[in-house]
Amino acid sequence: MLTRFVSEDNMIRYATGALLATYAGLTSADTIDNSLASLEGLLLGDNIPAVVTPARVEQPRVEVSSTLSVLSGEFIRRSNVQYVEDLLFYVPGFYVGPYWNSYRKVVAYHGTEKDRFRRIQVLVNGRSVYNSAYARVDWASLALSIEDVARVEVNRGPNASSYGSNSFLAVINIITRSPIETLGSDLAFATDDQGNRRMYAQHSGLSGNWSYRVSASRGTVDGYARKGDGDPRNDGHVQTSGNMFFLYEDNKQKVDIDIGAANLAADVEFYEVPGVSYDNTRPVLDRDREHVKVSWEVDQSAQHTLRAQYYYDRSERIEDHDIDVYGMVLNQLFAQDLPANEIYKGHLVSDLDENRHDVEVQSIWTPTSDYRLVNTLSYRQDRVSSKTYFDGDYKDELFRASTNLSYRAFDPLIINGGVMYEHSKLTGDYTSPQLGATYKLTQQSSIRANISQAYRVPDLYDQKAKWSYVFNSIRSIPAYSTGIPAEKITSYEVGFYHNIPTLGLSYDISAYREKLTNLSGSNKKYEDAIEDGGLLTPNESYAFTIDGIEAELDWRSAQGTLLRATIAYQDTKTDEEDIIETVAPFVTTLFASIPVSDSISINSRYIYGKEVASYDHEFLSLWLAYRMVQGSSTFTAGLGGNTRLDNNPYIRVNNVTEDKTSVFMFANVSF
User: Fold this and answer.
1) What's the distance, CA 471 to chain centroid?
2) What is the dihedral sign for C-alpha 634, 640, 643, 649?
3) pLDDT in tens, 572-628
4) pTM of this prediction?
5) CATH numbers and ranges of domains, the chain
6) CB-based burial, 337-374: b 16+ in 10 Å, e otherwise
7) b/e for 459-498, b at 16 or more Cβ within 10 A?
């Protein structure tokens, strides 16, 4: 049995660092008159934080029976994170980083895959953003700027009873700011000495019951310069996105319209195939993505709210390799009869177009303070078109019906239960139940227990892939998917949550067991499949059990100090080395922002991951931030540095950083 454990010296290192940072915050943050004001709209009466993700309706966090993390707007702004996905470092059990290329980031929770993580549901304002063909999230192609984000809620564990298949290991719910919160204009710029830079601009306005925001951002990442063996890499990307958000609100109803578009222009890995060369050319990828979402919410009575939502998401992706190919390769992979040593020039192009229509109606009925019933019906159509991966078009249709009940059995005890039924035209019927209980010890603390079941329904690539390449109008030998069963998880969790408003402190501790069956590994690359008789379907499925403990702590002092600490330990019981290599058995993070004067603060982050895809990772960042308010304008600027404290690649052997230390700066003006 293969297991992985955390060494005692690393535990001591983390504990010592956390104590020192906490002590520094307590002793030096005494100069700013900044009350516990603001959890930025996340509070109900009596300073009880509220969340919306677990049951898809606002409820006090102390009454939630599943494990939840909330990254508030205040934390997001102070963290100086430039891309939304990097915020997830600060959620227990997550790790984030590039795999094949700088643009293709892995956002993984509890491991199971290194390069194509497909087991997390990601929502932006209720709109699912995972891809139709291959159920992963291409973070770099999202029309989303971190400055527009109000908060991020993460349901750690399955929640398929509310969100359906692919809500397998976690649900990430990204909620953007109301235009009313961002009235006026903002300009921001950030850069470092490693070739990374980013610009952002927005303008928000108000007219009667309507408000709006128009925002845009552009980020350039140079990526990794060399591979693990010292050879040069073709890495780096430019991400450009724009978004328009319109909001109408009166005392009975709300309408929001979200329109966005993004372009990703990226360098990609060279094909390392004998007989293929590039002759000073570089392979590139171009991806366009756009979405439109409209939602309407109306209070039909004090007890009943009705919501309706429609969104459309489309992406077009082209990858082009301008290559020289020996005839022997064309003979082997393209079934030709050409002179083996003759060189043929041309373009090897891969294409993938995806689109989704999704319509949903939801009813929220609260007949008394002891009952709340949320019923949802939805229809989704996913369509893909690709000569490369499907040799044509395929479509799936998904029908969903769910019900979720919250019942206060007696004053301290709350029962939360739900079930989702799904019917896929391609893969059949699935039912995902969930049952939890929360016992409130006080109005601000509770213990909880939860059991849930979820499926990862096979996506279109799992079922219908017919992968081949076209070179100078010649199609290669195809590789096929033959279909896989749905992956299944059963999760058991217990936890304790405590909020202490008088101290500005909250913390959460959870323990869990996850039993996973029918797990399919990352699908093979084309050349691997051809060697195995043309089959893309993995040769085997996996079953294993994960036991773990996770904890997080948030502290916001009356003097303005902000501290967030997380820790996660995971023990994966399996005999499969492929699974073990995907697991980070111990991950911890620490963030501190400490005011030292009315306008200056010192900020730091520390991240440590043990054996993140086999490599230890240790990172430290420190910066000073300056803030000046002049009338209705605010100017913020900062200067700092990052350093890697390890000498390892990150996640993958070719992710090698030559310079372990970098300097960065940022500036923002609001007016």
Assistant:
1) 35
2) positive
3) 999 888 888 888 999 999 999 999 999 999 999 999 999 988 899 999 999 999 999
4) 0.91
5) 37-180+220-596 (2.40.170)
6) ebeeeeebebebebbbbbbbebebebebebeeeeebbb
7) bbbbbbbbbbbbbeeeebebbbbeebebbbbebebebebb
